[in-house]
Write a structure and sequence with these properties.
Elements (H helix, E strand, L loop, with lengths): L11 H12 L10 H4 L3 H11 L6 H21 L5 H14 L5
Helix pairs in contact: 1-4, 4-5
């Protein structure tokens, strides 16, 4: 017996938040971050619906995605990954030069 998987269709607001994340220079397409590589549309929609205020904006979504990535890097530093500190420092330099564009 096959399990049915329901696909959530994003609202216009959720789609604008997804688009903002996907087009962001730091976490969007081609950034090789976990948001880019592992978070699909369904995971993002679910996160928006459970963790975001009803009046959240695309800018809030990008800010969340950037913070998520930074938290992942900081956790790697805590585990003393040899390259994690260098990657975190590079991230922070890029972050300072990349304002949220939406």
């Amino acid at each position: 017996m096959a399990v049915e998987h329901w696909k959530m269709i994003p609202t216009a607001k959720e789609q604008s938040m997804i688009d903002a994340i996907r087009s962001d220079a730091m976490v969007g397409r081609g950034s090789c971050t976990s948001i880019d590589e592992a978070w699909g549309e369904q995971e993002l929609i679910e996160t928006f619906q459970t963790a975001f205020a009803k009046d959240a904006t695309p800018q809030d979504a990008v800010q969340w995605a950037r913070r998520w990535e930074q938290l992942r890097m900081e956790m790697a530093v805590e585990y003393e990954s040899p390259t994690a500190m260098a990657r975190l420092e590079e991230w922070e330099e890029k972050l300072a030069k990349s304002p949220i564009a939406c």
